[in-house]
Amino acid sequence: MNDMKGDVWMRDEVESPCVKLCVMHPAEGLCMGCYRTLAEIGGWSGMSPEARRAVMSELPARAPRVAGARRGGHEGRVRRRDQ
């Protein structure tokens, strides 16, 4: 019987910042959900923990570059109604 508590299941890795809102901002080249570039998203699984931590530390500063760019969902409906 397999023990799901083995070393394979207890890996100490930096989690992906993905929030499953995968929309690329056309001008900035950043995902509007996690703020990573396509290269960072595509290479995430092959990055070292140190490289992942470096990307994660940059993400908060990237958020303002795409803030307010989304027009869908609740925010888009409220804006249209108020105009």
Written as H for each helix and E for each strand, in order along the chain, the element string is: HHH
Oligomeric organization of the protein chains: single chain
* Overall helicity: 40-55%
Task: State which percent range the strand residues make up.
Answer: under 5%
The number of helical segments is 3
Give the distance, in angstroms, between the N- and C-terminal Cα atoms: 62 Å
Basic shape: globular
Low-confidence stretches: 76-82
Taking all Cα atoms into account, the compactness measure Rg is 17 Å
- Total number of beta strands: 0
Output mean pLDDT.
80
- What kind of sheet is the major sheet? none
Number of domains: 1
Describe the protein in words.
The chain is mainly alpha-helical and 83 residues long. It has one domain. 41% of the residues lie in helices and 0% in strands. The protein has three helices and no strands. It has helices at residues 38-43, 49-66, 73-82. The longest helix has 18 residues, at 49-66. The protein is globular and about 35 Å long. Residues 76-82 have low confidence and may be disordered.
Please outline the helices and strands.
Blueprint: H1 38-43, H2 49-66, H3 73-82
Care to give the gist of this entry?
This protein is mostly helical. It has helices spanning about 40-45, 50-65, 75-80.
